[in-house]
Task: inverse folding
């Protein structure tokens, strides 16, 4: 499984961005897709997660502002980010876990929110 994230960039406080993660390979073996982020000097944290059954999970800090979604074929995982804040600035990475609990990571994309 290969993951490739795109869509990061620079946005002003209160703006929006949409991140996309292209999923290639054995997509049918994936049970969990997620977005993580890591800000400078901080630990990586879960931002949002979606399961094959479409169960959703969000970090408290992004609830009501971010939405994770996937297309039916699970070829694309998206993260719509609205009402962005400077504290959302981080490198965002997409993640997948297959039914055998193998973890897959995509290369991160930088999101910078200016105040």
Result:
């Amino acid at each position: 499984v290969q993951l490739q994230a795109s869509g990061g960039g620079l946005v002003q406080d209160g703006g929006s961005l949409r991140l996309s993660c292209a999923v290639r390979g054995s997509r049918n073996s994936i049970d969990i897709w997620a977005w993580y982020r890591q800000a400078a000097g901080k630990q990586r944290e879960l931002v949002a997660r979606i399961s094959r059954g479409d169960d959703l999970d969000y970090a408290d800090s992004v609830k009501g502002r971010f939405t994770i979604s996937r297309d039916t074929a699970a070829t694309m995982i998206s993260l719509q980010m609205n009402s962005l804040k400077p504290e959302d600035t981080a490198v965002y990475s997409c993640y997948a876990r297959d039914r055998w609990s193998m973890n897959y990571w995509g290369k991160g994309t930088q999101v910078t929110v200016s105040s």
Q: What stands out?
A: The chain has a mean pLDDT of 96. The CA atoms of residues 18 and 99 lie 28 Å apart. The longest strand covers residues 30-38. DSSP finds no helices and eleven strands in the chain.
